[in-house]
Amino acid sequence: MTLKERFYHIATQWFKDKALLEQYWNELSENYSETFRKYHNSNHLLELFKYYDTYCEELKQPKEVAFAIFYHDIIYNIWSNKNEIKSAKLAQKYLKATKLDDSAINRIFNLILVTKNHEPKDNVDEKWMVDFDIAILGQPWEDYLQYTKHIREEYASVPKLMYKQGRRKVLVHFLNKKRIYQTEIFFKLYELEARNNLNKELEIL
Questions:
Q1: How far apart are the first and last CA of the chain?
Q2: Could you read off the pLDDT of 28-61 as tens digits, one per residue?
Q3: What Cα–Cα distance (Å) separates residue 122 from each residue in 58, 65, 107, 119, 180?
Q4: 3-class state of residue 205 by DSSP
C-alpha cells in the first residue's frame, strides 16, 4: 500500500469532502518532500508504517495512530523547537471539521505531541507511537550510521560546532532515560543496541 493509498483509506472515513482530502494529501506530500529533509521525509513515514503494520494488533486505536504518524512531522523547521506542537495543532484544526469526538481528536493531538520528548504518559498507543518514531536508534550500526548521516545532511546549514553541541545534547538526553523504549517488545528487541549506538556516536562525534 502506498502512502497515498494508506492516507485515503484512513481519512475517507472521517473527511467526506474529496476536494478537501486531495488538498490535505497534497500538503502532506509537499511538506515531506521538502528538499532539505534528508531523514524526516516520506521514507521516515514508510519506516514507521512498517512497524505499525507489524504491531497494529497491539494498538488500542490504530486509525488514530496511523493519522498521527502522517502528521507528526508535517511541520519541520530545523531552527524551531515548536515543530511537534505546530504539527499537532494543524492536525487538530483539520479534524475539528469532522464528526470525530473531542476525545479522539485530543488523543491524536497527544500522539503527535509525544514525539517531541518521547516521554509518553501511561497510555499504550502513545508508548507505541514513541517506539515507532525512534526505532532507528536500536538498529544495526550500519543502519544507525546512515541515519546519523542523513540527520547531519538535514542540518547542513548549522555550523559544525553548533551541530555537535546540539547532537550531543540529544544523545545524552536518550542515554539518561531510565529506558529508551516504552513497550516491552521494543525494550527487549532494541534497548541494548540503541544504547550501544548512542554511546558509539558520542565517541566519534
A1: 38
A2: 999 999 999 999 999 999 999 999 999 999 999 9
A3: 15, 16, 13, 10, 15
A4: coil
